[in-house]
Amino acid sequence: MAKAEDAYASGDLDNRQVSELDAKGWAGVFEEEVSGWLDGLPLVSGITETVAWCQRSGLVPVLATLAWSPVGSHLTDRFGFHTFSGPRLETTDGRFTGRVACHFDEYDKRDFALAQARKLGLAPGSCGAVGDSRSDLPLFASVGLSVAFNASTGARAAATVTVDDGDLRGVLPALSRLVTATR
User: Fold this and answer.
1) How does DSSP classify residue 3?
2) In the chain, where are the structural domains located?
3) Domain 2-182 classified CATH 3.50.30.40?
4) Is the dihedral of CA 173, 176, 181, 183 positive or negative?
5) What is the pTM of this model?
6) Closest CA to 83 of 93, 73, 97
7) Residues 6+ apart with CB under 8 A from 164
8) How confident is the model at residue 182 (pLDDT cuts 50, 70, 90)?
9) What count of other Cβ atoms lies within 10 Å of the Cβ of residue 119?
10) Contact criterion met (CB below 8 Å) for 82 and 64
11) Is the pLDDT of residue 180 over 70?
12) Which end of the chain offers a freer environment for a tag, N or C, measured as fewer CB atoms within 10 Å?
């Protein structure tokens, strides 16, 4: 999968192609097994604190991701995101089939985030996005504040602000601009 993800990052494969390759690796896995695997997922430090800061500050943290829906669901439940997006794997009798039930690309990611903003009565210009890759570029172009966090060259070039840090709390000074702007 690393080669496929690199090919996506370079533009040689699109998200649909990568998703179809990745889905095959899930074939035969029981849905109930996934949560246990995800508990050990290596993640950047500071997610809990950053989400809590957003909530205390009147911001609504939404997880717009291209990760499979079991991953987005797990992260949302674990860290308290308002909601999440992502592609869905096909299942039969509680097992993943190895096929994609619903594709979801970088434009769907943007559209999901903008739909959430509309539901909350927010203009896109008053919203922010934190991301790290090519899949964040359409969203970065659509919001008022974009933060490239430990990001690819393309994401850095498209972002309003760049943050390199081992802890997600490093984005809080940038996000604080949204709090000031909305008060």
Assistant:
1) H
2) 2-182
3) no
4) negative
5) 0.91
6) 73
7) 149, 150, 170
8) low
9) 11
10) no
11) yes
12) C
Does residue 163 contact residue 147 with C-beta atoms inside 8 Å? yes
Span 94-125, pLDDT tens digits: 999 999 999 999 999 999 999 999 999 999 99
Query: Please, which pLDDT band fits residue 7 given cuts at 50, 70 and 90?
Result: confident
Least Cα distance to 99 among 76, 68, 72, 71 occurs for 68
CB-CB contact of 144 with 174 (8 Å): no
Helix locations, 40-105, DSSP H: 47-56, 69-79
Q: Return the amino acid letter for 128.
A: G
Q: Which residues touch 168 (CB under 8 Å, ≥6 apart)? A: 44, 45, 46, 47, 49, 50, 130, 149
143-159 as b/e: b if 16+ CB within 10 A: bbbbbbbbbbebbbebb
The token pair at 110 is 């943007």
Q: Encoding tokens for residue 66?
A: 């291209």
CB 93 within 8 A of CB 112: no
CA distance readout (Å), 130 to 51, 76, 104, 161, 174? 12, 16, 18, 9, 10
